[in-house]
TrEMBL record:
Record keywords, A-Z: Membrane, NADP, Oxidoreductase, Transmembrane, Transmembrane helix
This protein's name: hydroxymethylglutaryl-CoA reductase (NADPH)
One GO process term, biological-process aspect: coenzyme A metabolic process
Residue ranges of the TM segments: 356-378
Native organism: Bowmanella dokdonensis
Length: 389
C-alpha cells in the first residue's frame, strides 16, 4: 500500500529508515522536515522509546538556579534544567530560587512511594465478591510472591479493595525502586491475577485494569493514596527578604493565599498554588520523564502559615509525583546529560530527583505569587515572554 510508512522489520532504527520516512512524508505533504532531520543522537539507542522514528523536535533548555535544597536525598546547590518555550519561565523560577537561598534553602522530605495496577474481578453476585476479598487478604503472602517473581525490583506492599455491584476492585500497591514502574507493575499484577483466578475457591474473571489505578489521569484517590512519590518542600520566608527581593510583604502573601485557596476550591482545581505543572513539565521534558505523568504529578497542596514575627511558613505537598532516574527515556543522550547535571542519573537517585522537583515547584510558586501581588506578572511577560511586541 502506497500510504503506509516505510519500515524495516529487521532494523527500523537507522539513519536510512528515518530519512526514507521523511522523504515519504515530504512527498505526501510537501513539508521537507529538514530541521527535524538534524540531530546528534544515534537512532540505534531508541528501541523501546519510539516507533516510526523520523527525527527530533528540539526544545530550548534553560538553567534555573542554583537552588539550595536541604533534603534527605538532595543536599546542596542544584542547577535545574528546564525545557520550555514559555518566555519568563526560567527567569521566574530563578528568582524564586534566589529567594529560597536567601532564606537558608528549602527543606524536602519524601514520605512514601507506590505504583499501582488495579484489576477488577467479576462474580455472580455481590456476596461472592465480598467473600473473595476476604480470601485475597488471607492469601496476600502467596499473591505477593507470585507478583514479585516477575521483577527483581517491584515489591508488593498492600492491596486496597472496593466492592461495587458484583465486582471487586483490587488496587495493588508496589514499590518500584528508581523506575516509574507502570509496565513493571502491569506484568507483576497480570501474573498475580492469573494465579488468583486459578486458585480462588470462588470462580471469577478479571480485567487487568478496572481504571482505579487512574494511570495518567488525575484522581482524588491519588491525592489520598500516593501514586508515585509523596514529597513535601517547605520553607520559612523571611519578611525582610520578601520585601527586598519580591517587592511585597508576607502579610499580603498570606491574604492572597487564602483567596487562592477559595478560588481553587470553587473551581475544583487539582492544585491550589500558582502553577506546579510549569516546573514539573519543564523538568520532565529535560530529564526524559513520561510527560503524560504531569497529569498526576502536578496535583497537590500549597499550605501557608503567618508566624508571630511575620515570617511566612510555606510548603508544597505533591502526593503523586512520578519520576524515574533509570529506564524509559532517562537513558537517552540529552536527557541523561540533564539528569547528570543534577547528579540524578542511575539507580538510587529517584528520591533525590523527587526532592529537587518539589523544591523547583516551590520556587516557581513563590515567584509567580509575588509577581501577581506586586503587579509584575503582565509586565514581565511583555518584557521577556510571548506577549512581547
Amino acid at each position: 500500500m502506497t500510504d503506509r510508512l516505510p519500515r524495516d522489520r529487521k532494523n527500523d532504527y537507522t539513519q536510512e529508515m528515518a530519512s526514507q520516512r521523511r522523504e515519504f512524508l515530504s512527498d505526501k505533504t510537501g513539508e521537507s522536515l529538514e530541521l527535524t532531520g538534524q540531530y546528534s543522537i544515534d537512532p540505534a539507542v531508541l528501541p523501546g522509546n519510539i516507533e516510526n522514528f523520523i527525527g527530533i523536535v528540539q526544545m530550548p533548555v534553560g538553567i534555573a538556579g542554583p537552588v539550595q535544597v536541604n533534603g534527605e536525598h538532595a543536599n546542596g546547590l542544584f542547577y535545574v534544567p528546564l525545557a520550555t518555550t514559555e518566555g519568563t519561565l526560567v527567569a521566574s523560577y530563578s528568582r524564586g530560587m534566589r529567594v529560597i537561598n536567601e532564606c537558608g534553602g528549602v527543606m524536602t522530605t519524601v514520605v512514601e512511594q507506590f505504583m499501582q495496577r488495579a484489576p477488577a474481578f467479576l462474580f455472580e453476585n455481590a456476596r461472592q465478591a465480598r467473600d473473595f476479598g476476604q480470601w485475597v487478604n488471607e492469601h496476600f503472602g502467596e499473591i505477593a510472591e507470585v507478583a514479585q517473581s516477575t521483577s527483581s525490583i517491584a515489591k508488593l506492599q498492600h492491596i486496597e479493595q472496593w466492592s461495587v455491584a458484583r465486582s471487586r476492585y483490587l488496587r495493588f500497591n508496589y514499590t518500584t525502586g528508581d523506575a516509574a514502574g507502570q509496565n513493571m507493575v502491569s506484568k507483576a499484577t497480570l501474573a498475580a491475577s492469573e494465579w488468583i483466578k486459578a486458585n480462588s475457591p470462588i470462580p471469577c474473571d478479571y480485567l487487568l485494569s478496572g481504571n482505579m489505578d487512574t494511570d495518567k489521569k488525575h484522581s482524588q484517590l491519588n491525592m489520598i493514596h500516593s501514586r508515585g512519590r509523596r514529597v513535601i518542600a517547605e520553607i520559612v520566608l523571611k519578611k525582610d527578604v520578601v520585601r527586598r527581593m519580591l517587592h511585597t510583604d508576607t502579610r499580603m502573601m498570606a491574604k492572597a493565599a487564602v483567596m487562592s485557596n477559595i478560588g481553587a476550591r470553587i473551581a475544583g482545581a487539582a492544585y491550589n498554588g500558582p502553577h506546579s505543572a510549569n516546573g514539573i513539565a519543564s523538568l520532565f521534558i529535560a530529564t526524559g520523564q513520561d510527560e503524560a505523568n504531569v497529569v498526576e504529578s502536578h496535583a497537590g497542596h500549597m499550605s501557608h502559615e503567618l508566624l508571630d514575627n511575620d515570617d511566612l511558613y510555606l510548603s508544597v505537598t505533591l502526593p503523586s509525583l512520578i519520576v524515574a532516574t533509570y529506564g524509559g527515556g532517562t537513558g537517552l543522550p540529552t536527557q541523561k546529560e540533564c539528569l547528570n547535571l543534577l547528579g540524578c542519573y542511575g539507580k538510587g537517585k529517584a528520591n533525590k530527583l523527587a526532592e529537587i522537583v518539589a523544591a523547583t515547584v516551590l520556587a516557581g510558586d513563590i515567584s509567580l505569587a509575588c509577581a501577581v501581588i506586586a503587579g509584575h506578572w503582565v509586565s514581565s511577560h511583555d518584557r521577556l515572554g510571548r506577549n512581547r511586541p
